[in-house]
């Protein structure tokens, strides 16, 4: 695609996406709507840091997390923006069931309005995650979401960190943008993010070691043994407790992110949700030259039977993701 100069405004980039592939016109319109909502959410988070919107609502979301006012505000801002876009149905972490917006519209959107909101109180990056699929018309409003991640036309997230960044893919590589607050628009920072095949950094919540599947335990133990063990290289570890922040690091400098299933009650398939966390991330990672599995199967081939279904996520540098799979295969 021409004119992929750093600094290209998001709306110019989206116009080129639409021009290059009319089939992506509606998906580009949805990304534009999410980006507009994200600019509002970024401002609300800034004000929320002043304490105004951090109060808990006392309600719980589908994850059992206590909803914070910011979770609800982000959900409302995003769904309001999607009402003006070609979106038939929305599956949101903050809503129990599928929401019907424009029944005859061509797209279905899975959204985590504010992933990691418990981090806001300590000024840690949080994010808005989205996956866009073709809508399947009819009375079964969940039908569009019972399709594999390979049907996603586009996916991405906004990370609200030191900068507000948009990481997006339309299946033509993974692009990154940063919000230029003076201009009030996202501008291109990378036309094609590339994950190095090899890595020396892994991300996992090590406090769960005693609960992990044995292959994950063995993989991490061998990473810890460094040059004295079979991996024959030393590793660094990171765990930010915010998926978008960890994934943005992996997309930027490589590494492997693991949220595996474990033996805790309710964690057999891990913590992260297929539709609005795992599948969008998997598309971004694969489009940047990385890999994403549940330890054995390719994430993008998974079909969620329920809109809040979970899946283990092991993703990032291909050599590391493949290495984890060898441990699962008993290698
Ligand atoms: P744990 C945040 O709540 C989240 O959904 C992801 O953003 C993050 O990677 C994960 O949970 C952290 O989970 O069990 O380490 O607190």
Automatic annotation (TrEMBL):
Cofactors that this protein relies on: Mg(2+)
Classification via InterPro entries: FBPase_C_dom (IPR044015), FBPase_class-1 (IPR000146), FBPase_N (IPR033391), FBPtase (IPR028343), Fructose_bisphosphatase_AS (IPR020548)
Localization: Cytoplasm
Binding residue positions for Mg(2+) 2: 112, 115, 277
Annotated Fructose-1-6-bisphosphatase class I N-terminal domain residues: 26-190
Cofactor note: Binds 2 magnesium ions per subunit.
GO MF term set: fructose 1,6-bisphosphate 1-phosphatase activity
Binding annotation for Mg(2+) 1: 93, 112, 114
Source superkingdom: Bacteria
Functional pathway: Carbohydrate biosynthesis; Calvin cycle
Residues the record lists as binding substrate: 115-118, 205
EC number per UniProt: 3.1.3.11
Pfam families per UniProt: FBPase, FBPase_C
Domain Fructose-1-6-bisphosphatase class 1 C-terminal: 195-328
Keywords assigned by UniProt, alphabetized: Carbohydrate metabolism, Cytoplasm, Hydrolase, Magnesium, Metal-binding
Main location: cytoplasm
Catalytic activity entry: beta-D-fructose 1,6-bisphosphate + H2O = beta-D-fructose 6-phosphate + phosphate
PANTHER family: FRUCTOSE-1,6-BISPHOSPHATASE-RELATED, SEDOHEPTULOSE-1,7-BISPHOSPHATASE, CHLOROPLASTIC
Record family assignment: Belongs to the FBPase class 1 family.
HAMAP family: FBPase_class1
Complex formation: Homotetramer.
Protein name in the entry: Fructose-1,6-bisphosphatase class 1
Species name: Methylobacterium persicinum
């Amino acid at each position: 695609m021409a004119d992929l100069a750093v600094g290209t405004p998001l709306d110019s980039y989206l116009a080129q996406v639409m021009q290059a592939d009319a089939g992506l016109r509606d998906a580009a319109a949805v990304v534009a709507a999410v980006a507009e909502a994200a600019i509002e959410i970024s401002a609300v988070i800034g004000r929320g840091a002043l304490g105004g919107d951090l109060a808990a609502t006392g309600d719980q979301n589908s994850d059992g997390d206590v909803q914070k006012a910011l979770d609800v505000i982000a959900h409302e801002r995003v769904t309001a923006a999607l009402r003006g876009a070609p979106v038939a149905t929305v599956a949101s972490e903050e809503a129990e069931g599928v929401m019907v917006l424009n029944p005859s519209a061509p797209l279905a959107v899975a959204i985590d309005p504010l992933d990691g909101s418990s981090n806001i109180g300590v000024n840690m990056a949080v994010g808005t995650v989205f996956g866009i699929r073709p809508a399947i018309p009819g009375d079964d409003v969940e039908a569009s979401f019972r399709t594999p991640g390979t049907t996603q036309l586009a996916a991405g997230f906004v990370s609200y960190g030191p900068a507000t960044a948009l990481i997006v893919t339309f299946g033509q590589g993974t692009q990154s943008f940063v919000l230029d607050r003076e201009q009030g628009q996202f501008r291109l920072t990378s036309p094609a993010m590339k994950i190095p095949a090899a890595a020396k950094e892994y991300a996992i919540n090590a406090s769960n070691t005693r609960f992990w599947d044995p292959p994950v335990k063995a993989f991490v133990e061998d990473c810890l043994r460094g040059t004295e063990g079979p991996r024959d290289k030393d590793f660094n570890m990171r765990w930010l407790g915010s998926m978008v922040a960890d994934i943005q690091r992996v997309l930027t400098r490589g590494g492997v992110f693991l949220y595996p299933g474990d033996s805790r009650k309710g964690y057999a398939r891990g913590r992260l949700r297929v539709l609005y966390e795992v599948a969008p991330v998997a598309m971004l990672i694969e489009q940047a030259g990385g890999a994403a599995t549940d330890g054995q199967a390719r994430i993008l081939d998974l079909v969620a039977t329920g809109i809040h279904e979970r899946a283990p996520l092991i993703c990032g540098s291909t050599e590391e993701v493949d290495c984890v799979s060898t441990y699962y295969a008993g290698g």
